[in-house]
Queue: 2 jobs
Job 1
Amino acid sequence: MANTPITVAHGDGIGPEIMEATLHILKEAGARIDIETIEIGEKVYLRGNSAGIDPSSWDSLRRTKVFLKAPITTPQGGGFKSLNVTTRKTLGLYANVRPCVAYHPYVDTLHPKMDVVIVRENEEDLYAGIEHQQTAQVMQCLKLISRAGCERIVRYAFEYAVRNNRKKVTCFTKDNIMKLTDGLFHKAFDEIATEYPALENEHWIVDIGAAKLADSPNAFDVIVMPNLYGDILSDVAAQIAGSVGLAGSANIGSNYAMFEAIHGSAPRRAGQNLANPSGLFLGSVMMLVHIGQADIAQLVHNAWLRTIEDGIHTYDIFAEGVSKEKVGTREFAQAIVARLGQKPQILKEAAYQEGPPQSGAGVTSSKAAPKKDTVGVDVFLDWQGQPNDLGAMMEKVAGDLQLITISSRGVKVYPGGNPETMTGDHWICRYADKDGKPVSHAQIIGLLGRVADAGLDFIKTENLCNFDGKAGYTLSQGQ
Ligand code: NAD
């Protein structure tokens, strides 16, 4: 079988040592890989490249499509772009996969049986980075969630569960509040779950789900969630497993994938043969599965579990009475190599299934495009004053449309607002056709012309649309 080319970056701080240890284990285990090395991180940043990666390095990544990356140091001071964000966005790495596992009784943990995998959507949600200051007092961050994005990540989570002998997939959202965005994620989850009848599935509201995860992680197996919740809860889950220094992570896209440790470059530990290479090593195990070398992944992972069980520990997990031998980075890697072919006796054995690279590619929404009718418009205004005064002005400019409500930060303030509601300089005036008929672009432009003529400062509009007759917008509180 031909070797698989991969791109490797040794990174900064402890990066080079843990990468060397990881590659030593893979080589001794017979991993069928050809390595292309690129330089990223501090030196590249300090050469004046604000992205921390040279243009030529992208050529290697485009060629191999697989990136094993050691942690880097981001120099202090402004102007340096996050290499992780750049890589994720450039390569379209939509899924972040983070197994959070306890290794009790060998590594101290509050949750001895914890074995949870967090699958985080990596591209959408509030992280699209679309923010605007709309008025002196109000900022906006757009939360964008697409059906294709939801289907892709949810299917990835279910496929991951099948391949890794997992029993249940849980979805976390806040769709009791964000009915359209998180509602779409939940809906896609419910639909795709029906294609996997052998797996249990469930949905939790993210707040109580997070509390349950922190308290009783054994209740969960694979958890899939939108970007923001996943960002926060993947750190919480890794921390409560007790093994932040041991956790690896995969970032997967349709064409590319990146594997790494979740920790940083630990500069104070650099160059002393002290660092624990396990996080990067476990990232490389996910890489082996991804490139279709489940046999090698299983071999090295089981040897690693046996090493942990045998009490051969680096300083960060060494504990008197539990550990047997305190070793350095190189010696730890050698201990794993010496155990190739062995299996753990207490800890759960690693088992991976052969299969082609799992990318989630080929996912398409089978739904026919719904019929869209524009039935109204929200006009956002920057204005100071009392709701009833604004109401009178906005009634006057309504023309062939009807003013339905005015709201401030999502709470109705006109007509019949509550005097206790705090208002500011940000208002949303909702208009619809007087007879409930569809509203044309010309009507909206006419309305905006009258608003401008009245000297009012509109800052944006949002069309109100029905899709197959169903409202594609929410009502304001109190409407
Ligand atoms: P860190 O993860 O590097 O270190 C946190 C603590 O954990 C330190 O006490 C460190 O000694 C210890 N530690 C981390 N990894 C270890 C290992 N493998 N073995 C033993 N001990 C380990 O976080 P930090 O100190 O906040 O950040 C240091 C640098 O890393 C910063 O420049 C930061 O920007 C960068 N960073 C990079 C990445 C990445 O490249 N993916 C991620 C996080 C932080």
Job 2
Amino acid sequence: MKIYNTLTKRKEEFVPIEPGKVRMYVCGPTVYNLIHIGNARPMIVFDTVRRYMEHRGYEVNYVSNFTDVDDKIIKKAIEEGVDAETISQRYIAECKKDMEALNVRPATTHPLATQEICGMEEMIQTLIEKGHAYVAADGTVYFRTRSFSQYGKLSHKNLDDLEGGKRSLLVSGEDQKEDPLDFVLWKPKKEGEPAWESPWCDGRPGWHIECSVMSKKYLGDEIDIHAGGEDLIFPHHENEIAQSEAANGKTFARYWMHNAFLNIDNKKMSKSAGNFFTVRDILEQYDPMVLRFFMLSAHYRSPLNFSADLMEAAKNGLERIRTAASNLGFLQQNAKEGNRSEAEAALLETAREYAKKFDEAMDDDFNTADALAAVFELVKFINTNADENSSGEFLKALEEELLELADICGLSVQTGQELLDSDVEALIAERQAARKAKNFARADEIRNELQQKGILLEDTREGVKWKRA
Ligand code: AMP
Ligand code: ZN
């Protein structure tokens, strides 16, 4: 299995630290709003990486954080007149609903920054003791960037170039730095902001330290894969490397994976630019599996431009797979009893070639675009070779192969999932009852279950309306 490593700018054979096991950390979202579909790209991509690694027999320990203390969260809390925790808890819950709808499996651990302050203080203390960090007069603790000689190795920047652009590195309020390249590990409290006691001042951590600390706590000093969107390469991941390697004296992560942006009109989709669609917006129009299919239709290191045409293409692609799966289910119900024929055994050999092709594509730095092309070849093969004369055994084998490949992509295409109108109505009634009883967890569960099966709900004044995606 080859992975493109941002650190070496090469595709490298994947060799885990511990045979059979993968330790993987993916930087998660800052929770102050509903996530947009750009944020969903790394979630879907790295969930697929995880699923494929499990398919190849690895046990994957997958850690992804929620940044739940940050300027934007505090700003939103002030606007709404609530505390920061109310905001972050609300949007963590919403984010988890989106993940579930998109079939993104929960991480092994989802740590929260606010629950890991002690560990952050310990690592900062170690950095101070080793001379890699210092406390300024106002209590801010800075990382001494020049003390880490390999700084820049991930983003392939050199310190002198960075120094040349130092004006842009001068951040207001950070005027007590020894050097403009230094970055914040701990900052003093401001009025009305959440704060924790520390040996340096009451305050809160800078952003970068949380990932170094959570990765160490849940995965150990050395991990296999660290991942996130390409905007995180500099400064976030560069700073994480500096903190972790300076504190622990070991190589932090062996493979650094970064997804390219999801764009809109060829510009990065982002909350700050205001050019975004939330996952929720899209799920009002499309089955969540269409969005997942769309994300996987491009290689994760290629920019992907969001457009209605590409979503329609994704919808059609998904439909082709679903139709093949449902035909296999239907044919099996009526198939003759009996084992496969010799001719069918030979055909199954050919069908397995598509699974092999799928694996080859995924082994080549998770080329999901080519892997989906192999799935379509299998679909075509099924459409040509499975019919009412086929044996049940043959049809079952084809169905298993198709469903397995779809499942590695996290695409639920299973047959027998179609709901009758009466089933939908009954579930909607159950959801209304759950809401009335303030059992919002159950209500959300039903909404997600329906969404997964392509039923979209809309809460209107006249009651709940629904349609098939
Ligand atoms: P944030 O909440 O901005 O820290 O982002 C959470 C994750 O989403 C990070 O891994 C980002 O790199 C990623 N991300 C944000 N915007 C985009 C985008 N337009 N395309 C792809 N990834 C993105
Ligand atoms: Zn991070």
